[in-house]
Recover the amino acids of this structure.
């Protein structure tokens, strides 16, 4: 089964062939590298940008306004923070012109910890991004979701921020992307660039299909009755695993993969919390002014009298960075044991 | 250390006085004669006056409480009008894209825009064609003519112009991307980004990079904070054809811009023009918006030249001005009766293609 | 009584004379203008920066690391968003170097709506800033607080973000700043630059005193028993006025001015909420991933079982901008009537 | 349109081949003879070898699982070692401030730093003197020597160097601020900001602005994405003295840098040097960290020259290298036994002057 990098690559190939995508660009996005995570190997419209994130976002806005369809990459979200003004501008252009100009652009960027990335290859970007109106914000946790959500992002006429949990980039999916050969080796031979000289290499694309997943629709990855766990990205599989484990201990948790952070699937959260009365939000961004706090607030404002326990947030510690040494990273972002403990505690809280 | 700071940076220190524009060489064409034919000269003059009178009307609206903020381009007409006349207007990559800043009203008028739009935006009425009463005066937007929305943050437009130009280069034809901004703003990294992205080897882009140097950033003299004697010199390192011109002379500006437009249209490569211009009503309404007498007025200068050459007859200029004054007064009266936008309309156009709605229930 | 612009100016004068401040700089901060809000008129160490916000923040970091004490200004917080990476860096430098380098710098910037500033002179910055670890974040609502908090900011050896509600800039205080003459006209003659030619003008500073207000300490501006209202900046006086008005209608609200957003005075909030059981947070930043949502989360996590009603947040609507026309601005940020209604509703909510 | 995009931007297109450094004029001094005396030549050589061997040890640690990430400067020793020898090291504005990027190990060693610090940071031990196990290899910090912390974001150091230089200019004396970075990073606006802020008229600052041009940004050739033939040309518009030099020749580099240092120290004005260097182990461990044979090795070249001139005897270089190999192997063994930082220590140093603590209670 494809991993997330391959899934992104296939979605982008589909998009440049069928959805009008004209420019897939960013630092080292073109060949010979095809992206530091290989997400753009062999793509027809991929090209290397100058090392200038502001230029990259500005270029994408210009291409979009010129009638092209850009998919820009910021190599690591850690390096996107000098472009927030431009992101805000892309997000307010349709509104400020009273509907005159749309800005159909996609920005992809790897996020999160888990690859021993130290301070500047471990940032999360969901808190900052969900505070910027006018964008849709997506964060898949499986290759198939990445494929389907990226397809929807490329069809959007609004700016879309596509956050890719870098620690999941190499994890193979459990579901087949429509069109991919069942055999991983076969897929790799078709679409992974070879080591060494790549000048003559061309990708051989499988016959891919549209498998767009609508933005704004969450996925219940595990049904349960006692506690609702809402997460996305890297922490989602950790939550799912924790729920599985706790099921053996008599705790029945429902796990929801939000997938789209804005607009998010409130109906899914609401229905679940109305059922369980207990909710835990999990993400790895730092915890002050964190998107999970918005979700807590929403739950409190709308479902207060249905709650059996205080809603909880488990997020990254409020620290200036994630340290390189293992014990530092482990102490900074939610670990499997933290999640298990939080779910178990919540399940045990009585009103 | 505080004392020494004063020595280095104390108040009032104005830095190097910028050299007068006439000392800049090579200025290929100096228009001592009238190198253009009379109809064009008259058109230039007419539009310059029209733009000036419209700006003055906007200022008057501000001063009489019919608008909260004014910013515009009086003093830059000799550059901005020729610019507008040279733009190939229309929608899509076959036409020119305009990445303007907030002093481009004269250019917009020269392109043929109706004056009433500016009055409506000044009064932030629901009828404001550029933002529906949302944005400041001078913040135009017109997709039908490739007028990319003017936004307040200084210099960001310079990062976007290469984007539209890339689409245009691919598209073929002679459409180009034009970007304008002020002198002070060139200190932002975005100006450098524009130079970098426009001049990638083999991927040079058809961007006409313009800087109107009025020697001011609000209250700060250019020569106090920037060391580049000619802003245009910054293009040289990138192999970008670059020039500093007299933006107070519409004839020279027209000819210089024409050459630059032709180069960018046909060579499909960038060209950088720095135009020295005046700022005749201060920075904006925030600084009072009063006429200054210490800077050259390009219209006065042009009218003297036209009258001397017999292109304008005595009294013609005055009559022209009066006609515009009356016309815009009438439009302003009309606009004052127009409705404000509704509060509920804030939800409109947050997303393209989706009905406006508050994402949250309100109790 | 001094207004906030004058209070800031006097604090800065005190700081350059007594606290080692070496550089007060930013766009148009030097004479002849002395700042677009006149905050820096007549100061000895004030100077005009190039129009380059990244340069301004980088310069401040450099001055701080070189042993100077900079107070940098970003002319409007609306223009700070291309520097977030540098702000993050300033905030993580002491941590990433394991305590080797401190970065004692102050950044001042005007925030908020209320001056008909349209999209780009109405931004709030509290949500974005409170998500950046390693900074102290301050936002006064009165001239005297501005004076005292800025003094503390200038004594700090950590980076401090000083947010000034621009709509309050010209409102005179109700308390005397130690040293200022009681008569407003007299004060203005001493320290306001004259209209017209200023080349020979010099400020005549009153004999100012240290009136530092410690960072992290809130102020209860109105005691009350039924509802806790926590706010700061521009919305604080609106909350205080609403509470006064509602007192006549039998609603007894306690109003807390947070003053420092990080570290914030949790003890003050907690004590009040334990007393009232009801809390409303009010600010004007947009409401998704908003600092008020952090405060709601904290209340829910720690005080859930003491609550008599769901904690509430009243904040700016989640819109890409604030429109220029009055009805647009009024529909976008909390208005006095909204605050009154929210307090009254909360007071009426029964468990 | 996708097809045309390919034509314009397709994979493999490498843009203009950069002209060889030898074609750049004026290179005041080309060191065909050995313009330095023997002890200095030997010191240069010794430190270059020391730095190279240390980098190779760091790479070996990475490859054997004793570190997660390597980045460094093998290939740049001919430039980085002379640089370190010329720095006036110490704390405070009377001394030089160093705003380095992540390839400056050789410079740090040339300044006299103990090699074991780099090994400790590589292994992210609690004893890492630069970050206590928090930051990547090559991310140095040493307040006692004005080594401003190296941070990962490219080019931000260029915005800070004018800040320390301002303090130094006021302070008096001859301390200067030195900033280093790569070629690709000059596309960021921050490089331009450095030029602007260093050259304000009358407020010029003592900043030695250095760019090590290895022709690569990770996998992207400089000539594919940037149009400035010489990066040093970008200083010219600002009136900044600027030069491109051969950074693979330590003699030339020493002499060129010495001149630049002297100018900045005495004139208190900026100087921009672009040094052409090699990248001998690829970008970082992310790209494999294997020795490349396609680029010139400055040590090989220098050793040949020194041996030919009799400054080094046959076998001396090899013996030197072996001594360092052994010494660093020993230090690496020691470092491997040192403890990792504690998880709880994450709270330390969030704020200066305050005890480290979690701001929230944990249940
Ligand atoms: C990024 C940014 N910073 C600051 C401002 C505030 N501001 C508005 S206009 C201006 C001066 C601009 O000067 P210049 O670029 O020379 O253009 P001019 O107004 O003189 O035409 C400033 C500082 C802004 N709008 N955007
Ligand atoms: C702002 C930012 N963008 C992207 C990166 C990722 N990155 C690390 S090194 C590098 C290439 C740098 O090239 P250059 O400036 O030439 O320096 P070199 O590594 O060649 O010495 C990139 C893109 C980064 N560290 N910072
Ligand atoms: Mg100007
Ligand atoms: Mg390089």
């Amino acid at each position: 089964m494809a991993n997330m990098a391959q899934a992104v690559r296939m979605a982008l190939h589909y998009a440049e062939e069928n959805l009008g995508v004209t420019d897939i660009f960013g630092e080292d996005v073109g060949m010979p590298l095809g992206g530091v995570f290989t997400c753009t190997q062999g793509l027809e419209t991929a090209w290397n940008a100058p090392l200038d994130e502001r230029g990259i976002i500005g270029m994408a806005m210009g291409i979009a306004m010129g009638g092209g369809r850009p998919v820009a990459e910021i190599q690591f979200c850690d390096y996107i923070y000098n472009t927030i003004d431009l992101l805000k501008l892309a997000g307010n252009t349709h509104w400020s012109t009273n509907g005159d100009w749309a800005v159909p652009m996609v920005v992809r960027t790897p996020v999160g910890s888990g690859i021993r990335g130290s301070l500047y290859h471990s940032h999360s970007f969901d808190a900052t991004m969900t505070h910027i109106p006018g964008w849709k914000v997506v964060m898949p946790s499986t290759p198939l979701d990445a494929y389907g959500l990226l397809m929807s992002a490329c069809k959007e006429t609004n700016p879309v921020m596509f956050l890719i949990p870098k620690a999941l980039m190499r994890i193979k999916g459990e579901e087949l992307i429509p069109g991919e050969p069942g055999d991983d080796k076969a897929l790799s031979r078709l679409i992974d660039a070879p080591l060494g000289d790549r000048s003559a290499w061309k990708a051989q694309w499988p016959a891919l299909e549209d498998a767009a997943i609508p933005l704004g629709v969450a996925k219940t990855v595990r049904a349960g009755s006692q506690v609702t766990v809402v997460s996305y990205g890297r922490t989602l599989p950790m939550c799912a695993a924790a729920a599985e484990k706790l099921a053996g201990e008599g705790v029945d948790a429902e796990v929801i993969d939000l997938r789209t952070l804005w607009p998010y699937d409130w109906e899914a959260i609401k229905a679940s919390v109305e059922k369980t009365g207990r909710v835990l939000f999990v993400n790895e961004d730092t915890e002050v002014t964190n998107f999970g706090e918005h979700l807590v607030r929403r739950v409190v404002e709308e479902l207060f009298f249905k709650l059996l326990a205080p809603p909880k947030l488990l997020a990254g510690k409020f620290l200036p960075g994630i340290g390189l040494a293992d014990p530092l990273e482990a102490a900074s972002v939610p670990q499997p044991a933290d999640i298990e403990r939080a779910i178990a505690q919540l399940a045990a809280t009585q009103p | 250390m505080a004392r020494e700071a004063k020595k280095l940076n104390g108040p009032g220190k104005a830095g190097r006085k910028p050299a007068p524009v006439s000392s800049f060489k090579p200025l290929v064409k100096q228009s001592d004669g009238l190198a253009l034919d009379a109809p064009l000269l008259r058109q230039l003059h007419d539009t310059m006056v029209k733009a000036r009178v419209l700006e003055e009307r906007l200022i008057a609206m501000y001063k009489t409480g019919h608008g909260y903020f004014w910013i515009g381009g009086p003093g830059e007409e000799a550059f901005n009008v020729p610019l507008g006349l040279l733009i190939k207007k229309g929608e899509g990559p076959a036409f020119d894209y305009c990445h303007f800043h907030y002093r481009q009203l004269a250019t917009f008028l020269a392109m043929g825009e109706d004056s009433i739009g500016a009055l409506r935006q000044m009064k932030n009425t629901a009828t404001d064609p550029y933002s529906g009463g949302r944005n400041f005066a001078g913040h135009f937007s017109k997709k039908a003519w490739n007028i990319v929305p003017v936004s307040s943050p200084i210099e960001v437009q310079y990062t976007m112009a290469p984007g539209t130009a890339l689409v245009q280069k691919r598209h073929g034809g002679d459409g180009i991307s034009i970007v304008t901004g002020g002198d002070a703003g060139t200190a932002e990294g975005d100006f450098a980004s524009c130079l970098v992205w426009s001049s990638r080897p083999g991927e040079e882009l058809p961007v006409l990079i313009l800087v109107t140097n009025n020697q001011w950033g609000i209250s700060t003299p250019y020569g106090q904070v920037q060391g580049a004697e000619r802003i245009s010199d910054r293009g040289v390192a990138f192999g970008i054809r670059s020039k500093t011109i007299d933006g107070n002379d519409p004839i020279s500006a027209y000819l210089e811009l024409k050459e630059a437009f032709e180069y960018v249209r046909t060579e499909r490569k960038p060209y950088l023009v720095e135009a020295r211009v005046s700022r005749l009503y201060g920075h904006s309404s925030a600084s009072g918006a009063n006429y200054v007498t210490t800077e050259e007025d390009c219209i006065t200068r042009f009218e003297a030249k036209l009258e001397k050459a017999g292109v304008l007859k005595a009294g013609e200029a005055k009559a022209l001005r009066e006609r515009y004054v009356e016309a815009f007064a009438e439009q302003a009266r009309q606009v004052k009766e127009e409705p404000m936008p509704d509060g509920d309309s804030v939800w409109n156009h947050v997303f393209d293609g989706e009905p406006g709605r508050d994402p949250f229930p309100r109790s």
